Amino acid sequence: MIFFKKQNGFTLVETLVAIGIFAILSTIIASIFFNINNLQQNTASFQRLQNEGRYILEKLAREIRGRELNYPLEGTNPQTQLIFRQDENGESVSIIFNAPNLVFINGVGSADLNASDVEVTDMKFFVLPTAEDQWGEAPSSNTQSRVTILLKLKNKVSNPKYQKEITLQTTISSKIYKR
After folding, report:
1. Cα(73)–Cα(81) distance, rounded to whole angstroms?
2. C-alpha to C-alpha distance for 107 and 14, rounded to whole angstroms
3. For residue 60, what are the CA distances in angstroms to 24, 34, 44, 72?
4. Is the peptide bond before 78 cis (omega within 30 degrees of 0)?
5. DSSP per residue over 4-40, as a string?
6. What is the pLDDT of residues 163-176, one digit of tens each?
7. Coil, helix or strand for 111?
8. What is the chain's alpha carbon radius of gyration, rounded to the nearest angstrom?
9. What is the pTM of this model?
10. How far apart are CA 94 and CA 117, in angstroms?
């Protein structure tokens, strides 16, 4: 009688099944990883635009609240610039939309309000009232000046897949109200 010695190991079929299962699991895990990475890139890009938009609107709001608009305004609404009267220190300020930048000009010089990786694609100022109110001359139209800002931002990224655009709007009233 011939006895065969039992060998410990895997058969070819068992090895192929194990490799197939490993390949399927690796594909699933890799696709999950790439989807999470894409989602993170999209979220970071959108969050950057939101933060930049909030900064720009807060900077504009601070200037509009504390300054007096220079009337009469050029043309009608919407405006592409805001020009303010000189303050008590003799400083004059202007805010001008010059695509792709929003430019802040004061008596000393000028500076872009948006970061270098974010461009302002559109900016409109809607000013009400459109003419300076004179108290007593037209009391029914005597209102505090307010500015509605419409701001469109787009980020500059190397991969167009992650390029986002956001539109923000807010209305700000001036704290200065003369009767």
Report:
1. 9
2. 80
3. 54, 39, 24, 20
4. yes
5. PPPPPS--HHHHHHHHHHHHHHHHHHHHHHHHHHHHH
6. 889 999 999 988 87
7. strand
8. 30
9. 0.76
10. 23
